[in-house]
Predict the structure of Lysophosphatidic acid acyltransferase theta.
Amino acid sequence: MVGQVHGGLMGIIQRAMVKACPHVWFERSEMKDRHLVTKRLKEHIADKKKLPILIFPEGTCINNTSVMMFKKGSFEIGGTIHPVAIKYNPQFGDAFWNSSKYNMVSYLLRMMTSWAIVCDVWYMPPMTREEGEDAVQFANRVKSAIAIQGGLTELPWDGGLKRAKVKDIFKEEQQKNYSKMIVGNGSLS
């Protein structure tokens, strides 16, 4: 598995997982970590004796309605991608973790006391990067296939937006566009 380093209870779980089998954990904010992760992933896929790597290319969990922008790093390393579409059925228990609303312990308690966690899982045909296709195009093609299979909406933005404050410049640009829509081009008719 590949993922971001966590502290607290999640960090304890991560350290225990590494003892059971190799995982690649990284600090998202460290550029040198990104290069090291890329190197380790390329070495891993070059060794045909090793198991496939489990990667969640959105880099975050979302609310089971959409597929957000995939991080391109997973698609830069080469190799074959085996896409899996997963869609949870919240009828008996909602598996979505809103980390800004619930801490890890309350989420785990909610999951463990749910009647059942039901999901549809589709193992899709393997995909490889096509001639002339860059990593972003490849990521978008895989994302689109997963969205179609799972009946999910494709979103063009990064999942990090749910936690980050939107930059003022982006807000101003949208306000200007909205103003132009309402007022028109500014001339009196």
About this structure: Residues 55-183 form one domain. The mean pLDDT is 81.
